[in-house]
Amino acid sequence: MRLLFYVYMDKTTIFEAQINNTMRHFYFFLIISIFCAFNIKAQTIKASDYPLLGAQVFIEPGQTEQETEQWFKTLHDNGMTICRIRMFESYMHKDNHWDFSLFDRAFRYAEKYNIKVLGTFFPLTDKTDIGGWKFPKDQAQLENFAEYIKQMSTHFKQYKSLYGWVLINEPGGGLKDNAFSQNMRKEWNLKHQESDFLKNGYPLLVDLQDEQFRNELTTWMLKWIANEVRKYDKNIHLHVNNHAIFTNIGEYNFSEWRPFLNSLGGSAHASWHFTMFPRQEYDIAMSADCELLYSGAGSLPWFMTEIQGGNNTFSGNCAMCPTKEEIAQWLWIIIGTEGKGGIFWSLNPRASGIESGEWALLDFQHQPTDRVSAIASVSHCLNNNKELFYTAKKIDPGISILYIRESLWTEKIITQGTPAATDGRKMCMENMLGYFKSLSECGITPNLKAFDEYDFSKPDYSGQTIILAHQLAVPSKYVPLLESFVSKGGKLIVDGLTGFYDENVHNQMLTGFPLKKLFGGSISEFNKIDNPHFYHLKGYKYEIPGLLWKGTIRREASLPLCNENNEPLPLATENHFGKGDVVWIPSLLGAGWSLGNYSLASWLALECETSSIPISFKHLNRDIIMKEMKAKDGIITITVNKSRETQIVDLQKNNQTLMPKILYADKGGSANATSITINPEESLVIHWK
Questions:
Q1: Mean per-residue pLDDT, 152-161
Q2: Of 154, 180, 402, 641, which residue is the least packed, with the fewest Cβ within 10 Å?
């Protein structure tokens, strides 16, 4: 057993075996990891904990005891049962002396008002460092961090209010060129030496090692922190919140985090993180963020660790204040993606420094705003139907949009420092999200997954669809998985420049296309197009716009799906492979959504197998989305209307006996057996049974 676990640890912690000075405690950590793996009680989010709704209580010197108590009372009085506290080392550790009194007071009041505390590790950093560092600068700082973790873990475990630790605030985007990273990279390189030439004889001129190192070092750092905590507390809940997920997703490998976490989380600040979306689509942005976290969590529970709670004045990428309706929408979207709750940043504003007076749910007199009332109303509904929601499971629609990490890395490398980075050619994420938007407004929420999070081990994929939307790089190891998926009855929809490169930034379309057998052909060339090209696909009466690139295909086994002007080379094909099919349209169809032409949505609804989805929209409904969950005795739908008008939405149901019971309608929406009526900015939650 120990030997087997050592092999597993070696696989998941790639740096540990050879680190010299920086990792001289490796063997001790390994022993701790083994002990934890076989002796820690399974941590989960119990039904009694649900729902985990709350807010950050920002603790800083100068606050009075009366204020502190008032904040925890406000949480309690408004249906919130959990808070985060940023555990500033700078406010506890002075001149080799630890003084915990400021934070002890907060933990005591948390106990008084029955509020769980999720403490966020925040080791000593510069006064102006708002988010905290993600990696130490050298060995000394790493060792100081270890001592800080010891102090936090041993001192605060005395409080029943301590629920868990956030390992580090918002990992991602914080790797700097310093002694620590240089030493780690030196040792990492010893295990990742590359040849100057590829197996096919071509030179290896550009590689993905910088991005792979960054990704794996992030995992290493989080695991190191978790192992430090486990020295002192075997049972405490461990959690982490990624951030800016649409930008930083390439740095994360959630499946590698699962062994040392008890839950996964994320930060979803609209003004910081949703800049790819107009405000009218923040519901879609939140939904996509949630889907990525749900998939990344795997069998672990997840909840949104940080949600924008109030106005940001000078911080953030754009100034905004969430409305009470948006607060409710975001919470219900999280719940509808099987999230166990959400924590807002923040309850009270910080008083000093950058971001002072911003982000809060309370006003400057510490009084609750209408945003607090919105949280209370959602909490009331969830608590009145606790078992229903706690046991409900997200419905798998059988449609999965997959992102390939190597594709995101490749796009970053080939565009970095060039006009392509900003002139509209960097489209991997935007094009993928166009497919997500299209299906979402049909009342179908597709899965969003990393390629390696998809289960390719099933014997049959009939009725299942995978979408590879402009995934520039397809590693060679993924080709047999895709072939197996399609041959077992799956449908693969491919667009854009998918497969242009392999995992070595090598143009495989030029030197032997490994997907030719599966796709039934290969690309002749891609032409840059300045204006949208409208595709007339066989069997579909509407034209679908494609942007930026128009590829032509040299067919072998495939059938033409789009021929124009009697040209010999088709613009789209369909290939029957085994029991399944591949539909290939080498243009950016997802990005075409931005033109206001929504034909992609109805084509996808026809092309994908959707009959197994219990409830969806009969037709596309712009600015309306619906999340769907399977309850023990029926179906839960959560619908959000971002349009400016009251909408009557006709439903497609595969069980006509299901009848609606309204659980939540903050604008007076209604439903009958065949449709729902939903008002502008409303969240409408229905139990169908």
A1: 98
A2: 154
